[in-house]
Design a protein that fits this description.
The chain contains six helices and three strands. The protein is mostly helical and 179 residues long. It is globular, with a radius of gyration of 23 Å.
């Protein structure tokens, strides 16, 4: 029995070519590692979540619950559907989170007197206290993360991010609720 020759590796596409024919090396929509704006935004979000969770662990608050608490602290009482939209979570997914936070005494749900199928959600005094305690530390962490950027760079950053948000929310079929 004879040994067969080793199979050669498939030819690799040149670094600057993709299936779409995009010239990655010269494209404004990817960085030098080939990451899109969406990819790096996701990466940064995950890094912020990880750092935030370290702070939230002091009060045993999961990052997913923090989003609800933060929106309620900012917006006040909201109906459950509106709260879910602002957090960016399906209303059916929100129910277990709201149940857990209500059980801990962080928020209160009250039936809508005009439509008993709907609920309003608001922070309790305890929930407000948790937000008031943890928010300054979270802001300090965020401030530290951007400390190497100049004021001008931050103005540019905000201008660009707001323009991307306006563009994305203007697309057909996009959920228009942003917070």
């Amino acid at each position: 029995m004879t040994k067969s020759a080793p199979k050669s590796a498939p030819a690799k596409a040149p670094v600057n070519a993709t299936a779409s024919g995009l010239d990655v090396e010269n494209s404004p929509i990817v960085d030098q590692r080939g990451r899109t704006v969406a990819w790096i935004t996701r990466t940064i979000h995950r890094l912020y979540d990880a750092e935030s969770q370290k702070i939230l662990d002091k009060r045993k608050i999961p990052i997913a619950h923090w989003y609800y608490l933060r929106v309620l602290a900012e917006r006040g009482e909201l109906n459950q559907l509106e709260l879910s939209r602002r957090v960016g979570i399906a209303s059916t997914t929100a129910v277990p989170a709201l149940d857990a936070m209500e059980k801990r005494g962080l928020l209160k749900r009250v039936r809508d007197p005009n439509d008993r199928r709907k609920y309003f959600v608001r922070l309790t005094e305890k929930g407000r206290g948790v937000v008031d305690e943890l928010f300054p530390e979270l802001l300090a962490m965020i401030e530290k993360s951007i400390s190497r950027l100049s004021a001008g760079e931050m103005r540019t950053f905000w201008k660009v991010m707001h323009e991307v948000e306006r563009t994305l929310t203007g697309l057909p079929g996009t959920n228009k609720t942003t917070d």
